[in-house]
Amino acid sequence: MEYNEIYLLGDSLSAGIGHKDVITWPTRVNKTNRLKIIDLSKGGSRVKDGLKMVPKIENKNRPILIALGGNDWRFGKFNNIKDYQNGLERLLSSLCIGRRTVIMFEIPFPPLEYQLLKSQRDLIRKYNVKMIPKRFLSDVLFIDPNATVDGLHLSNIGHERFAEKLISILS
């Protein structure tokens, strides 16, 4: 994959959680001048919130990077997996039009959430979305204990590692 400019639909993993001294991975990627990320992320966003970000996409031909889904599991506990499936399907169907490239991070859901992972993979396949495997996020989040500020949200070390890994994939 090689891209010059890409839209990002994300949650706090991309937007950060407000620590003033933390430089987020989208900002770090933009500083490299190798890839421009138009960052539409917002902390706390779920898959259904991605639909609110879609109208902000000005260039309909640019690729889209989706980094959503963690909050659906974290806060929703998937009492109704259909809500997640329907939200993701609506999001992907609104984005996967024409020849636009859509890329989505596979969420490293806990092992007992097999149906959730299966839903995400099935919809990625259905809409021909390129998938960045869950090992990408796992490598950033779980290998270095200093990569997060609270076990989930990225520290400067985590944002730097994320940016470096993403640039190597997308540019």
TrEMBL record:
PROSITE patterns xref list: LIPASE_GDSL_SER (PS01098)
UniProt-recorded name of the protein: SGNH/GDSL hydrolase family protein
Pfam family, one: Lipase_GDSL_2
GO terms of molecular function: hydrolase activity
Matching InterPro entries: Lipase_GDSL_AS, SGNH_hydro, SGNH_hydro_sf
Keywords for this protein: Hydrolase
Record domain SGNH hydrolase-type esterase: where: 8-160
Provenance organism: candidate division CSSED10-310 bacterium
Superkingdom of origin: Bacteria
Regions crossing the membrane: none
